[in-house]
Amino acid sequence: MSFNNLDALYRRVIMDHYKNPRNKGTLENGNLTIDMNNPTCGDRIHLTMNVENGIVTDAKFEGEGCSISMASASMMTQMIKGKDVETAEALSHIFSDMVQGKEYEGDLDLGDMEALQGVSKFPARIKCATLAWKAMEKGLGKEKE
């Protein structure tokens, strides 16, 4: 597949998550609630998660922001559901490295989140892409306390 075709595919994946977000909403009985915002651009997220016995059993988000921020939140909630806390945190670190242009050579399936690797070419958008992931890390940090 040529670079132009791959780039177009990634844009379609991002826009699909933006226009048809997965896990949009709030968990009424979520045991973790995190609110974060990016003051430089106005992106904001309200993340609710259920963590039971070290497993992220559910995650939903609400928020406002650019297509990168909201697509990333949609992808993140899909990726962490059913994962243990350590794997969810590892995915967050992998994602952060990826959007900063670092190569990933591990064996975890990155799914749709690979579509955001092009963010590394736009440093001002890295905070947009990582907002939901930082919120998740903050929530899991609370869980450990």
From TrEMBL:
SUPFAM superfamilies: SufE/NifU. GO terms for biological process: iron-sulfur cluster assembly. InterPro entries: NIF_FeS_clus_asmbl_NifU_N. It comes from the Bacteria. GO terms for molecular function: iron ion binding; iron-sulfur cluster binding. Residues 10-128 form the NIF system FeS cluster assembly NifU N-terminal domain. CDD domains: IscU_like. Belongs to the NifU family. This is Nitrogen fixation protein NifU.
